[in-house]
């Protein structure tokens, strides 16, 4: 499916209470023309975090049934997938949505680098946008 101009993802931020917001460098999932891959965001095991999305809806049409699908892989194996309904949006914006909180796993086996692909689609299954990034779960926060 083609990515459409009805939607533009302006930014994505990881929020952890007591820590500075961590902006995600948006890159296409295929590694496209955004330059070299960025270093993974570092998150401490067991942390609770939220994802904040900022986007605009293009002049083409209003969007109904917007949803965000988050798929995570570790060492090439899918380890998680969730779909979150975002709702309906009129042309314009920018809009900001903070997704429900998540807690990272704890333990030696969870410490690794995870690849994430986020897809935004409408009720008809049209893919409006995609992004990819990575994060690393560590025992402690970086200094």
Descriptive terms for the model:
143 residues; mainly beta; Coagulation Factor XIII, Chain A, domain 1; 5-stranded antiparallel sheet; 5-stranded mixed sheet; 57% strand; Rho_GDI; Rho GDP-dissociation inhibitor activity; Ig_E-set; cytoplasm
Extract low-pLDDT stretches: none
Shape: elongated
Number of strands: 10
The CATH topology assignment is Coagulation Factor XIII, Chain A, domain 1
Q: Alpha-carbon distance between the termini?
A: 42 Å
Subcellular location: Cytoplasm
Main location: cytoplasm
Pfam families: Rho_GDI
Organism: Streptomyces pacificus
Short description:
This protein is mostly beta strands and 143 residues long. The protein has strands spanning 7-16, 22-23, 41-44, 48-57, 63-74, 77-89, 92-98, 102-103, 113-121, 127-138.
Written description of the protein model:
The chain is elongated. The chain has strands spanning 7-16, 22-23, 41-44, 48-57, 63-74, 77-89, 92-98, 102-103, 113-121, 127-138. The strands form two sheets. Strands 1, 2, 4, 7 and 8 form a five-stranded antiparallel beta sheet that branches. Strands 3-10-9-5-6 form a five-stranded mixed beta sheet, with no helix packed on it. It is mostly beta strands. Helix content is 0%, strand content 57%. Strand 5 (63-74) and strand 6 form a beta hairpin. The chain has no helices and ten strands. It starts with 6 loop residues before the first strand and ends in a 5-residue tail after the last strand. The protein has one domain (7-28, 38-138): Coagulation Factor XIII, subunit A, domain 1 (Coagulation Factor XIII, Chain A, domain 1, Distorted Sandwich), CATH 2.70.50.
């Amino acid at each position: 499916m083609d990515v459409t101009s009805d939607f533009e993802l302006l930014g994505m931020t990881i929020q952890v209470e007591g820590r500075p917001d961590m902006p995600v460098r948006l890159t296409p999932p295929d590694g496209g023309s955004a330059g070299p891959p960025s270093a993974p965001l570092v998150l401490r095991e067991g942390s609770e975090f939220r994802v904040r999305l900022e986007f605009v809806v293009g002049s083409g049409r209003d969007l109904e049934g917007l949803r965000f699908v988050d798929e995570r892989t570790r060492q090439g194996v899918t380890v998680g997938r969730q779909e979150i309904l975002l709702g309906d949006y009129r042309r314009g914006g920018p809009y900001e949505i903070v997704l429900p909180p998540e807690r990272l796993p704890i333990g030696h086996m969870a410490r690794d680098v995870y690849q994430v692909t986020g897809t935004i689609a409408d009720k008809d299954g049209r893919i409006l946008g995609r992004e990819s990034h990575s994060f690393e779960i560590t025992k402690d926060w970086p200094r």
